Every structure is written in structure tokens, then in C-alpha cells.
Amino acid sequence: MLLASSVLIVILLIGSRRFVAHHILRLGGFVLTGILTNALVCGVFSAPLDRFQARTVWLIPLMAALLYYSVREYKSRRQDTSIGPRH
Length: 87
Description:
Blueprint: H1 2-15, H2 22-45, H3 50-54, H4 59-83
Helix pairs in contact: 1-4, 2-4
């Protein structure tokens, strides 16, 4: 699940960058940087235990879901406006 979520994040960030709101892109960068920093700090300064990474690893699927729904919402909103006003 984590690998699939990570791949989805990369695909969405590269392929749909213009469809994602800037604040979600910044949040994604912040979360991924935080997770990598946490892994580095916990791996260097303590014995590599899964419990340290388990506290933050749930953020990866959450970011994948946020990015996916952000792109989906943008595309559906764009499709609705391209149809024109309904009478």
C-alpha cells in the first residue's frame, strides 16, 4: 500500500502538476520532507525500529488521496465549465 501510494504521489505530482492547488503541492512537499527527515533521524540516532516510522507513515496514503481528489475535483470542475451554462 505504501509503495502504491508513493508511486501515485509521484505520478500525480509529475503528470498533473498544473491541476493541483499550490497549497496541496506545498503540503505534499512538506509531508514527504518530514517523513524522509524522520526516517533519517530515527535511523541514525536510534536503533532502526518500526515504531518510530509507524507514527508518520500513514501520511503517505493520506497525501496520495488528497492529491488524487484534488486532481479529480479540478478536472470535473473544468469539464462542468466547458459545457456551458445550463438552462
